[in-house]
From TrEMBL, chain B:
Keywords: Cell membrane, Membrane, Transmembrane, Transmembrane helix. GO terms for molecular function: transmembrane transporter activity. Residues 1-26 are annotated as: Disordered. The chain crosses the membrane at residues 42-64, 70-88, 119-137, 149-174, 194-219, 240-259, 271-288, 295-314, 320-338. GO terms for cellular component: plasma membrane. Residues 1-10 have a biased composition (Pro residues). It is found in: Cell membrane. This is ABC transporter permease. It comes from Labedella endophytica. Pfam families: BPD_transp_2 (PF02653). It is a multi-pass membrane protein. It comes from the Bacteria.
Amino acid sequence: MSLESVGTADRSRNLSNEAGSIVTTKLLEVQGISKSFPGVQALKDVQFELDRGEVLALVGENGAGKSSLMKILSGIYTRDEGTISFEGRPVEIEGPRAAQALGISIIHQEMNLMPHLTVAQNIYIGREPRSLGGFALRERALNKKTAELLARLRIDLDPRQEVGELTVAKQQMVEIAKALSVDSKVLIMDEPTSSLTASESETLFRLIEGLKADGTGIIYISHRMEELGRIADRVTVIRDGRYVGTLAKGSFDVPTIIEMMVGRHIDENARPTAIDTHDNDVVLKVEDLSTRNFINGVSFELRRGEILGFAGLMGAGRTEVARAIIGADPRTSGTITVNGKVVSITKPTDAVRHGIGYLSEDRKSLGLLLGQTVSENILLPSLPNFSNALGFMQPAKGRNVAKRYVDQLKIKTPSVQQVTKLLSGGNQQKVVIAKWLERDCDILIFDEPTRGIDVGAKDEIYALLTDLAARGKSIIVISSELPEVLRLSHRIAVMATGRITGFLDNEKASQNTIMELATRGHE
Amino acid sequence: MTTSTPPTPTPSAKNPEQINPPGGAERRGIGQVLRSQLQQSLAFATLVVLIIFFSVSSSSFFTVSNISGILLSTAVIGILAVGTTFVIITGGIDLSIGTGMTLCAVMTGVFITNMGLPLVVGVIGGIATGALMGFINGFNITFLGLPPFIATLAMMLIAQGLALVISGVAPIYFAEQAFKDIALGTLIPGLPNAVLILFLCALVAYVVLSKTILGRYTFAIGSNEEATRLSGVNTRKWTILIYTVAGIFTGIAGVVIAARLGSAQPQLGTGYELQAIAAVIIGGTSLLGGRGSILGTLIGALIMSVLINGLRILSIQTEWQNVVVGIVILVAVFTDSLRRRREA
């Protein structure tokens, strides 16, 4: 399937190459785009085309080059090679303003709003109604204009409200209104639903349908595969900065797209190889763990070499259990036994001393020093081991240890001196794992281990966790993705409203049995 | 674990597509206004309490001549603070306003006394000196990519050095009474002109900040510079302009202090920038950018003058005055951070 579509792409490219004089009626046509940054080829010979009134989904793993491509179209980057034709004319897009003038608008993935300004001030920033030679603001006209725009888009917001006071979903609506406030012919949306709930997404989709009917061409970037069938007319896949292929509506399904994205087959129904851990020693025993007005009498055992999954709905208390165990939050009751000895853990340092490492779901702000090198991050908790009696660092010793982890965990980085920020999400996660392994943690608690990591890299993390367990580490995995829990865990603890509602052995667990336990006590 | 939308009940279900309950926005609007004004209201309350306290403590505090004296001593710091409010709202800082003011005063002296140029030309020349320094600060920050702290620290030293070199390390005196009247004359009986200039500066700054494009971009850049740039706003140009505006106020302050002292004192200036910045912060402008007001700055500057004046009237040693001002700054910034923590 993927090979076939690559073929189609090649043919169409040849066609346009021979016939440079053909009058194209495409809204936007992008050919042979390349862009490199120092040391990285971000894009190589990428192409796609967009019709009026069409939604083209652009998919690819993190780091595949989608965002770079969109930044070229919106004038933030300039391309090294290639052509961009807009309504049949070749164009140069030299800055955000030039893109706006052409009618290309972009809703960036990261929020690009001024939190201290109001909704209206944000939407029309740079294009405020003015008087007195363009220097004085006409605030009332601005608010009126915004109210009209919001009414037309059926978005209910107060133009005078400060944006920082809005929820993320409403801020997203402000972004959309902002993009649509210019006369957009092409609208680029970079993961617009990543922070929206299902019903908010549905509102967005209806908005998109309205725009399609008006003839707007939409480039839609998303990681949520299930959305594509709902909203996309065609799907273009890029991988490692290269064009892979384009699939038309009716000819794409999720497994095919994922295969094109990662370049190999991924089995979504994989389960852990059945290793019986029931007879192993209990390394961590938690009894009657409670916190003030939330966690209520949680007890469980974790055995050597076991992966214990924690499943449950949002707010069921899984993260809170982990935080209570490591002493990040105060407990009202509970005994924690590590390797048969009752231990006193009142702060995270105690947990680390007893060999319990917690890998936060918020890797970027709580797990890593993004501006520091791979080596510095790995060694951070174990620094005393890499300095001499006077406190002087022993850099060579540290580098060697860091290198060993880079090899062992297959961390993709040019060197251990690379700044962590520049690694992909999956490799950053591996750095965090290396950090705790070096600190001699035998019990690892992973909170959403693959959040923000793309499909291909997820597989590697899964393999890594399975391997760690096989080598005798004991692992707790907290995950909101049921396939992930099923894929990894030997046993699954299901939580609802602060208590454990049941344990399931992997063989007996399914999405249904988990959901049944996860919703227990909700009625 | 993240919870997305706050549990605001939808009062009207007439339009199910509405994602925002209509009443919610209004209610929160009022709360938000109160909260964003909190720091300023606190500052104002502090000012009132201080005035009452000193009036009760000493009969010589609340007199026309003393109040007029307080206002006069507020003028120079106040004008500097008003200018630097713009810079601080962008999330930047300007350390060069103190010695910069001195250089402007010296240049005014050079123009009027040494070169014998007409008064108006001299004054404009002095103010232009400030504008030029601000422009250079802005250029260094935007085009050379220097952090504002470094760029303006360098300018602070350069201005200090130049003021000494140009003046030959000696005061330049002004002979003309008309020049001294710029600060000490009384167009309005009982009110020194310097105070009038402060209020005019504050008024102009207030209008520029709240009613013009420049003001809007000042807040936008401070709130999220990258987003502002991506919205097609030429943030470099506006940043330079904002620093230039701050420089103009520095120039005005330079003229006023020269007129008040009847001379340009080249050794003066260091420390004024910190007092001005303190006034801005006490007035509720956030050092993180995006938030601030001229009225707050004015109140902040008055608090400092009233404090210093009151402590002097109560015969408290000069040495203690700085300690008290330092504590006031701590309290002001602490309440500000309390508010931010509640917002987060």
